[in-house]
Amino acid sequence: MYKIPGHHHISMITKNANENNHFYKNVLGLRRVKITVNQDDPSMYHLFYGDKTGSPGTELTFFEMPLVGNTYPGTNAITRIGLLVPTEDSLHYWKARFEEHDVVHSQVTTYTNRPALKFEDPDGLRLVLLVSNGEKVDHWETWEKSDVPEEHQIGGMGPVEMTVRRLDKMASTLTDMFGYTEVSRSEREAIFQSIKGEVFGEIVVKYMEGPSEKPGRGSIHHLAIRVKNDEELKHWDEQVKQRGFQSSGIVDRFYFKSLYFRESNGILFEIATDGPGFTVDGDVEHLGEKLDLPPFLEEKRAEIEEKLSPIVEK
Q: What pTM was estimated for this model as a whole?
Protein backbone atom coordinates (compact mmCIF):
# COMPACT_ATOMS: atom_id res chain seq x y z
CA MET A 1 0.00 0.00 0.00
CA TYR A 2 1.29 3.47 -0.90
CA LYS A 3 1.88 5.97 1.92
CA ILE A 4 1.70 9.76 1.76
CA PRO A 5 5.14 10.89 3.08
CA GLY A 6 4.00 14.41 4.00
CA HIS A 7 3.20 17.82 2.55
CA HIS A 8 4.48 18.82 -0.89
CA HIS A 9 3.62 22.54 -1.07
CA ILE A 10 0.90 24.99 -0.13
CA SER A 11 -0.44 27.78 -2.36
CA MET A 12 -1.80 31.17 -1.35
CA ILE A 13 -3.07 34.46 -2.84
CA THR A 14 -1.04 37.65 -2.54
CA LYS A 15 -2.05 41.13 -3.66
CA ASN A 16 1.48 42.41 -4.28
CA ALA A 17 4.37 40.28 -5.54
CA ASN A 18 7.00 42.84 -4.47
CA GLU A 19 5.75 42.99 -0.87
CA ASN A 20 5.45 39.23 -0.82
CA ASN A 21 8.96 38.76 -2.23
CA HIS A 22 10.48 41.10 0.36
CA PHE A 23 8.72 39.39 3.27
CA TYR A 24 9.48 35.77 2.41
CA LYS A 25 13.06 36.38 1.20
CA ASN A 26 14.30 39.19 3.41
CA VAL A 27 12.26 38.76 6.59
CA LEU A 28 11.68 34.99 6.74
CA GLY A 29 15.02 34.23 5.04
CA LEU A 30 13.59 31.64 2.64
CA ARG A 31 15.04 31.14 -0.80
CA ARG A 32 12.97 32.23 -3.76
CA VAL A 33 13.49 29.13 -5.87
CA LYS A 34 11.22 29.90 -8.82
CA ILE A 35 9.65 32.90 -10.52
CA THR A 36 7.09 31.59 -12.96
CA VAL A 37 3.44 32.15 -13.87
CA ASN A 38 0.14 30.49 -13.12
CA GLN A 39 0.03 27.95 -15.95
CA ASP A 40 -3.77 28.29 -16.15
CA ASP A 41 -3.56 32.11 -16.29
CA PRO A 42 -0.08 33.23 -17.45
CA SER A 43 -0.85 36.91 -16.77
CA MET A 44 -0.38 36.07 -13.06
CA TYR A 45 2.93 35.54 -11.23
CA HIS A 46 3.45 32.26 -9.39
CA LEU A 47 6.28 32.60 -6.85
CA PHE A 48 7.86 29.69 -4.97
CA TYR A 49 9.91 29.92 -1.75
CA GLY A 50 11.58 27.11 0.17
CA ASP A 51 14.90 25.59 1.09
CA LYS A 52 18.01 25.59 -1.12
CA THR A 53 16.33 23.70 -3.97
CA GLY A 54 12.65 24.11 -3.11
CA SER A 55 12.44 20.56 -1.80
CA PRO A 56 8.99 18.98 -1.39
CA GLY A 57 7.66 19.90 2.04
CA THR A 58 9.38 23.31 2.11
CA GLU A 59 7.53 25.11 -0.68
CA LEU A 60 5.30 28.11 0.01
CA THR A 61 3.82 29.32 -3.28
CA PHE A 62 1.87 32.47 -4.14
CA PHE A 63 -0.34 33.61 -6.97
CA GLU A 64 -0.27 37.40 -7.42
CA MET A 65 -3.74 38.93 -7.91
CA PRO A 66 -3.39 42.74 -7.75
CA LEU A 67 -7.17 43.35 -7.85
CA VAL A 68 -8.07 40.80 -5.17
CA GLY A 69 -10.20 41.93 -2.23
CA ASN A 70 -9.89 41.05 1.46
CA THR A 71 -10.45 37.59 2.88
CA TYR A 72 -13.65 37.22 4.90
CA PRO A 73 -12.82 34.47 7.42
CA GLY A 74 -15.15 31.54 7.83
CA THR A 75 -15.32 27.78 7.87
CA ASN A 76 -14.52 25.18 5.18
CA ALA A 77 -11.09 26.67 4.55
CA ILE A 78 -7.39 26.08 5.17
CA THR A 79 -6.75 28.54 7.97
CA ARG A 80 -3.14 28.41 9.19
CA ILE A 81 0.30 27.15 8.13
CA GLY A 82 2.87 25.76 10.54
CA LEU A 83 6.57 26.26 9.80
CA LEU A 84 9.28 24.38 11.68
CA VAL A 85 12.25 25.97 13.46
CA PRO A 86 14.97 24.02 15.31
CA THR A 87 14.70 25.06 18.98
CA GLU A 88 12.83 27.13 21.53
CA ASP A 89 15.71 29.63 21.37
CA SER A 90 14.76 30.06 17.71
CA LEU A 91 11.32 31.33 18.73
CA HIS A 92 12.92 34.11 20.77
CA TYR A 93 15.21 34.95 17.85
CA TRP A 94 12.15 35.20 15.59
CA LYS A 95 10.14 37.25 18.07
CA ALA A 96 12.93 39.84 18.14
CA ARG A 97 13.22 39.72 14.34
CA PHE A 98 9.48 40.23 13.94
CA GLU A 99 9.61 43.24 16.26
CA GLU A 100 12.49 44.67 14.21
CA HIS A 101 10.52 44.28 10.96
CA ASP A 102 7.10 45.32 12.33
CA VAL A 103 5.56 41.91 11.72
CA VAL A 104 2.23 41.20 13.44
CA HIS A 105 2.94 38.42 15.97
CA SER A 106 1.89 36.87 19.28
CA GLN A 107 3.84 36.14 22.42
CA VAL A 108 5.58 32.74 22.59
CA THR A 109 2.74 30.30 23.19
CA THR A 110 1.89 26.69 22.31
CA TYR A 111 0.23 25.15 19.27
CA THR A 112 -0.52 21.43 18.97
CA ASN A 113 1.25 21.08 22.34
CA ARG A 114 4.52 22.45 20.94
CA PRO A 115 6.22 25.77 21.76
CA ALA A 116 5.06 28.22 19.09
CA LEU A 117 4.97 31.79 17.83
CA LYS A 118 2.01 32.94 15.73
CA PHE A 119 2.42 35.66 13.10
CA GLU A 120 0.93 37.13 9.93
CA ASP A 121 2.40 38.10 6.58
CA PRO A 122 1.62 41.48 4.88
CA ASP A 123 -1.56 40.01 3.34
CA GLY A 124 -2.87 38.79 6.71
CA LEU A 125 -2.04 35.12 6.00
CA ARG A 126 -1.94 33.30 9.35
CA LEU A 127 1.19 31.31 10.11
CA VAL A 128 2.85 29.82 13.17
CA LEU A 129 6.45 28.86 13.92
CA LEU A 130 6.79 25.61 15.87
CA VAL A 131 9.75 23.94 17.52
CA SER A 132 10.64 20.81 15.53
CA ASN A 133 12.88 19.23 18.21
CA GLY A 134 15.19 17.97 15.51
CA GLU A 135 12.48 16.49 13.27
CA LYS A 136 13.57 17.07 9.68
CA VAL A 137 12.96 15.51 6.30
CA ASP A 138 16.21 14.00 4.98
CA HIS A 139 16.20 15.92 1.71
CA TRP A 140 15.56 19.40 3.20
CA GLU A 141 18.65 21.55 2.58
CA THR A 142 19.85 24.62 4.47
CA TRP A 143 20.37 27.70 2.30
CA GLU A 144 23.75 29.11 3.19
CA LYS A 145 23.01 32.57 1.69
CA SER A 146 19.98 33.23 3.89
CA ASP A 147 20.08 36.31 6.13
CA VAL A 148 18.84 34.07 8.96
CA PRO A 149 21.53 32.13 10.87
CA GLU A 150 21.47 28.40 10.14
CA GLU A 151 20.63 27.52 13.76
CA HIS A 152 17.34 29.47 13.48
CA GLN A 153 16.34 28.93 9.84
CA ILE A 154 12.87 27.70 8.92
CA GLY A 155 13.23 24.06 7.89
CA GLY A 156 9.93 23.41 6.15
CA MET A 157 6.22 22.95 6.69
CA GLY A 158 4.72 21.51 9.85
CA PRO A 159 1.03 21.31 10.80
CA VAL A 160 -1.50 22.68 8.33
CA GLU A 161 -4.77 23.78 9.93
CA MET A 162 -8.17 23.30 8.28
CA THR A 163 -11.51 24.53 9.63
CA VAL A 164 -14.57 22.58 8.51
CA ARG A 165 -18.27 22.04 9.19
CA ARG A 166 -18.04 18.26 8.79
CA LEU A 167 -15.04 17.03 10.75
CA ASP A 168 -15.96 13.35 10.38
CA LYS A 169 -16.06 13.64 6.58
CA MET A 170 -12.55 15.11 6.52
CA ALA A 171 -11.37 12.45 8.99
CA SER A 172 -12.68 9.72 6.72
CA THR A 173 -10.91 11.15 3.67
CA LEU A 174 -7.59 11.45 5.50
CA THR A 175 -7.67 8.09 7.29
CA ASP A 176 -9.70 5.76 5.08
CA MET A 177 -8.45 6.98 1.71
CA PHE A 178 -4.96 8.36 2.35
CA GLY A 179 -3.96 6.24 5.36
CA TYR A 180 -3.28 9.11 7.78
CA THR A 181 -3.28 8.25 11.49
CA GLU A 182 -5.63 10.11 13.81
CA VAL A 183 -3.38 10.94 16.76
CA SER A 184 -5.80 12.98 18.88
CA ARG A 185 -9.48 13.91 18.94
CA SER A 186 -11.69 16.20 20.99
CA GLU A 187 -15.20 17.47 20.31
CA ARG A 188 -13.95 20.37 18.18
CA GLU A 189 -10.52 19.31 16.90
CA ALA A 190 -8.65 16.30 15.52
CA ILE A 191 -5.01 15.91 14.52
CA PHE A 192 -3.84 13.59 11.74
CA GLN A 193 -0.33 12.58 10.68
CA SER A 194 0.68 11.06 7.35
CA ILE A 195 3.52 9.26 9.15
CA LYS A 196 2.73 8.66 12.81
CA GLY A 197 4.98 10.66 15.11
CA GLU A 198 6.19 13.02 12.38
CA VAL A 199 5.10 16.66 12.45
CA PHE A 200 5.98 17.44 8.81
CA GLY A 201 2.87 15.67 7.48
CA GLU A 202 0.46 16.83 10.15
CA ILE A 203 -3.04 18.20 9.49
CA VAL A 204 -5.05 19.88 12.26
CA VAL A 205 -8.80 19.83 11.58
CA LYS A 206 -11.04 22.16 13.59
CA TYR A 207 -14.83 22.00 13.67
CA MET A 208 -16.66 25.29 13.11
CA GLU A 209 -20.19 26.05 11.97
CA GLY A 210 -21.11 29.23 10.10
CA PRO A 211 -20.61 30.68 6.62
CA SER A 212 -17.77 29.50 4.41
CA GLU A 213 -14.68 31.66 4.12
CA LYS A 214 -14.74 34.15 1.25
CA PRO A 215 -11.22 33.95 -0.19
CA GLY A 216 -9.11 37.02 -0.91
CA ARG A 217 -5.62 38.34 -0.19
CA GLY A 218 -3.85 36.11 2.32
CA SER A 219 -6.19 33.18 1.83
CA ILE A 220 -4.91 29.65 1.20
CA HIS A 221 -5.91 28.19 -2.17
CA HIS A 222 -4.91 24.56 -1.68
CA LEU A 223 -2.63 22.09 0.09
CA ALA A 224 -0.55 19.70 -1.99
CA ILE A 225 0.52 16.37 -0.49
CA ARG A 226 3.46 14.29 -1.71
CA VAL A 227 3.75 11.15 -3.77
CA LYS A 228 7.01 9.72 -5.07
CA ASN A 229 6.33 9.22 -8.78
CA ASP A 230 3.89 8.91 -11.69
CA GLU A 231 2.89 5.37 -10.75
CA GLU A 232 1.78 6.42 -7.27
CA LEU A 233 -0.04 9.44 -8.70
CA LYS A 234 -2.05 7.16 -11.02
CA HIS A 235 -2.95 5.00 -8.02
CA TRP A 236 -4.27 8.01 -6.10
CA ASP A 237 -6.17 9.26 -9.14
CA GLU A 238 -8.09 5.97 -9.08
CA GLN A 239 -8.64 6.17 -5.32
CA VAL A 240 -10.04 9.71 -5.58
CA LYS A 241 -12.48 8.64 -8.28
CA GLN A 242 -13.52 5.48 -6.40
CA ARG A 243 -14.44 7.62 -3.37
CA GLY A 244 -16.81 9.60 -5.59
CA PHE A 245 -14.70 12.75 -5.75
CA GLN A 246 -14.17 14.51 -9.06
CA SER A 247 -10.50 14.37 -10.09
CA SER A 248 -8.94 16.91 -12.42
CA GLY A 249 -7.03 14.02 -13.94
CA ILE A 250 -3.25 14.08 -14.04
CA VAL A 251 -1.78 17.44 -15.06
CA ASP A 252 1.87 17.90 -16.11
CA ARG A 253 3.13 21.04 -14.35
CA PHE A 254 6.68 20.48 -15.75
CA TYR A 255 8.28 20.78 -12.28
CA PHE A 256 6.03 17.97 -11.04
CA LYS A 257 2.87 16.15 -12.09
CA SER A 258 -0.27 16.44 -10.04
CA LEU A 259 -4.03 16.11 -9.73
CA TYR A 260 -6.64 18.15 -7.88
CA PHE A 261 -9.87 17.29 -6.08
CA ARG A 262 -12.22 18.83 -3.52
CA GLU A 263 -13.18 16.76 -0.49
CA SER A 264 -16.66 16.84 1.07
CA ASN A 265 -16.19 20.21 2.81
CA GLY A 266 -15.02 21.81 -0.43
CA ILE A 267 -11.35 22.06 0.56
CA LEU A 268 -9.05 21.73 -2.45
CA PHE A 269 -6.26 19.15 -2.28
CA GLU A 270 -3.51 18.63 -4.81
CA ILE A 271 -1.50 15.41 -4.98
CA ALA A 272 1.94 16.12 -6.46
CA THR A 273 5.00 14.06 -7.44
CA ASP A 274 8.38 14.77 -5.86
CA GLY A 275 10.11 15.24 -9.20
CA PRO A 276 11.57 16.36 -11.44
CA GLY A 277 11.84 19.51 -9.28
CA PHE A 278 12.98 23.07 -9.84
CA THR A 279 16.45 22.26 -11.17
CA VAL A 280 14.92 20.74 -14.32
CA ASP A 281 15.36 24.10 -16.08
CA GLY A 282 17.99 25.82 -13.95
CA ASP A 283 21.15 25.19 -11.93
CA VAL A 284 21.09 25.27 -8.14
CA GLU A 285 23.23 28.42 -7.86
CA HIS A 286 20.83 30.59 -9.89
CA LEU A 287 17.39 29.31 -8.95
CA GLY A 288 14.71 31.98 -8.77
CA GLU A 289 16.76 34.73 -10.39
CA LYS A 290 14.72 35.10 -13.61
CA LEU A 291 11.33 34.28 -15.05
CA ASP A 292 11.16 30.58 -15.90
CA LEU A 293 8.41 29.23 -18.13
CA PRO A 294 7.46 25.64 -18.89
CA PRO A 295 8.22 24.68 -22.51
CA PHE A 296 4.60 24.96 -23.64
CA LEU A 297 4.54 28.66 -22.63
CA GLU A 298 8.02 29.61 -23.86
CA GLU A 299 6.82 30.73 -27.29
CA LYS A 300 4.58 33.28 -25.56
CA ARG A 301 7.40 34.69 -23.38
CA ALA A 302 7.37 38.22 -24.85
CA GLU A 303 3.59 38.50 -24.48
CA ILE A 304 3.70 37.13 -20.91
CA GLU A 305 6.57 39.39 -19.78
CA GLU A 306 4.78 42.44 -21.16
CA LYS A 307 1.85 41.85 -18.77
CA LEU A 308 3.95 41.28 -15.63
CA SER A 309 5.19 44.10 -13.41
CA PRO A 310 8.90 43.74 -12.57
CA ILE A 311 9.87 42.37 -9.16
CA VAL A 312 12.22 44.92 -7.60
CA GLU A 313 14.73 43.57 -5.08
CA LYS A 314 15.07 45.54 -1.83
A: 0.98
Report d(CA 240, CA 249) in Å as an integer.
Answer: 10
Statement: residue 11 has pLDDT above 80: yes
The rounded mean pLDDT for the chain is 97
HEC sequence for 13-82:
EECCHHHHHHHHHHHCCCEEEEEEEECCEEEEEEEEEECCCCCCCCEEEEEECCCCCECECCECEEEEEE
Q: Could you report the per-residue pLDDT of 232-273, keeping only the tens digit for each?
A: 999 999 999 999 999 999 999 999 999 999 999 999 999 999
Q: Could you give the CA distance from residue 82 to residue 228 in angstroms, rounded to a whole number?
A: 23
H or E stretch covering 230:
helix 230-242
Residue 66 identity: P
- Please state whether the peptide bond connecting residue 276 to the residue before it is cis, i.e. omega within 30 degrees of 0: yes
| CA separation for the pair 3, 194 (Å, rounded) | 8
Q: Give me the domains of the chain, ranges plus CATH numbers.
A: 6-307 (3.10.180.10)
* Rounded Cα–Cα distance for residues 223 and 260 (Å): 10
Closest by CA to 219, choosing from 82, 68, 107, is 68
CA–CA separation, 63 and 61 (whole Å): 7
